[in-house]
Amino acid sequence: MAQPAWQDPVLLPVDTAPVPEYGSGSLADLLPTLVAGQGVPGFTAAIPELTPADRNCVFLIDGLGWEQIKAHPDEAPFLHSLLPTSRGGTGRPITAGFPATTATSLASVGTGLPPGEHGLPGYTARNPETGELMNQLRWQPWTPPKTWQPHPTVFTLADAAGVRTAQVSAPDFEQTPLTKVALSGGSFLGRLSGEERMDVAAERLAAGDRSLVYTYYSEVDGKGHRFGVDSDAWRGQLMYVDGLARRLAEQLPPRSALYITADHGMIDIPFDEQSRIDFDEDWELRAGVALLGGEGRARHVYAVPGAESDVLTVWREVLGEQFWVASRDEAIAAGWFGPKIDERVHGRIGDVVAAAHDDVVITASVNEPHESAMVGMHGSMTPVEQLVPLLEVRS
To answer: Is residue 10 very low, low, confident or very high in pLDDT (cuts 50, 70, 90)?
Structure first.
């Protein structure tokens, strides 16, 4: 309910944001838990509910959050039937990490580290060395991958320890910088169709006494962005990927565990002025801002030097009833990006960080026309974006 004009707005306190379960139940904890159970040195089982298996397969469905599976039993009967198996049979989800976005989440999965350590803290982030915005999904402008993300992947360390390791994905992803910094190690097997990926993943899983296989499907997310999660196109993709998951589950070799998860959920945002606040048309929000990073529901705001405090004040006044608005230091202290922030990552985080609480986004119609036109959005810490499944099938 809106406040009367004579009352001060009720701002969302930073400490009320539901911080991801780093260290016990986030995407960053999944692979370390699996390889610890396979005897890979240097790892501990961070998600205590999971039981070790000799052969582990992770099937990551881009954009398919926990709430979407719960809401669509007819379109996803197989996935819906597995909800009670999630998180080691507790029937609970895990969390993506903040921001709940693909580049950040895939880096968390592959490195086993929260965003504050792997250093991909959003869709776009400022490169402190150049002052430019770095798109961490498209890797533009070009930035040396190993400089940007120097930590070894879990796949690399598992492969070195004798675990048969493979990634099965679209061929176009093999040479991308994001794959190199987040998902490299062992064999990369490019397959065009979803069915081929499922079949090859099962074959690679059986190829070693200890094996770790990762496979991925992107178009649930793609249709959600373009048409929304309340569209027939999205539902069609959900039905298709439900069949893929069943196909893979039915081919598991002995001593295997299949984990079906996602990088984030998604929410449809109405096309009206109350729901879509256009930064490029809002002089108050633009004042003192040098760069706008992140994405609509998880913004990094980089201030002109000396204007940091003023920008924080204005963003809180304008948006603080609908967004959790924090200074960099407040967001770090609250643990939004994990319990530890590498020194090289500190300046990539915005001087101000704004995470959506309500069904609202901050668009940028001039500088981000493609992103601003999307129906489905994600990035923040609300349950629909943050909660992801960890469905389990064993053989």
So the answer is: confident
How many whole angstroms from its chain centre is CA 89?
23
Contact 234, 224 (CB under 8 A): yes
Interatomic CA distance for residues 183 and 395, integer angstroms: 25
Spell out the residues 6+ positions from residue 87 whose beta carbon is closer than 8 angstroms to its own.
25, 47, 49, 50, 93, 94, 390
pTM of the model: 0.96
Model pLDDT for residues 267-288, shown as the tens digit of each residue:
999 999 999 999 999 999 999 9
In this structure, the number of other CB atoms found within 10 A of the CB of residue 310 comes to 13
CB 388 within 8 A of CB 263: yes
In our burial notation (b when 16+ CB lie closer than 10 A, e otherwise), range 60-94 reads: bbbbbbbbbbeebeebbebbbebbebbbeeeebbb
Q: Do 371 and 149 touch, CB atoms closer than 8 A?
A: no
At 20, list the tokens. 């991801």
- Cα–Cα distance, 57 to 212 (Å, whole number): 6
Helix axes 219-227, 232-249, angle to 10 degrees: 170
CB 319 within 8 A of CB 277: yes
Phi-psi category of 99—alpha, beta or left, where left has phi over 0 and alpha has psi -120 to 50? beta
